[in-house]
Amino acid sequence: MGGGNAQKSKMAREKNLEKQKAAAKGSQLDSNKKAMTIQCKVCMQTFICTTTEVKCREHAEAKHPKSDLYTCFPHLKK
């Protein structure tokens, strides 16, 4: 049997409404920018807040071999 034009219009409206709700949530990029809270004090490169000490150590050794880890990332001092 099949639907008439009214049913097709209703389905199209519902589909568009779902798309608009999904678009209203926004992009994850804005949240990621706000989460970039760890910063290397030598080169000012930022890292996301979930970055581990291992990643910070890798950055310091690769990018700043003459500086120690705590010069780049003073928040790691205990």
UniProtKB/TrEMBL annotation:
Q: Where is this region: Disordered?
A: 1-30
Note the InterPro entries from the entry. At2g23090-like (IPR039713), At2g23090-like_Znf (IPR039438), SERF-like_N (IPR007513), ZNF706/At2g23090_sf (IPR026939)
Residue ranges of domain At2g23090-like zinc-binding in the record = 39-76
Reading the lineage from the top rank, the first entry is Eukaryota
**One matching Pfam family:** zf-met2
Ranges of residues in domain Small EDRK-rich factor-like N-terminal: 3-36
Compositionally skewed regions (Basic and acidic residues) per UniProt: 11-21
Membrane-traversing stretches:
none
PANTHER family for the chain: OS07G0114300 PROTEIN (PTHR33788)
Record's protein name = SERF family protein
Q: What is the lineage of its organism?
A: Eukaryota, Viridiplantae, Streptophyta, Embryophyta, Tracheophyta
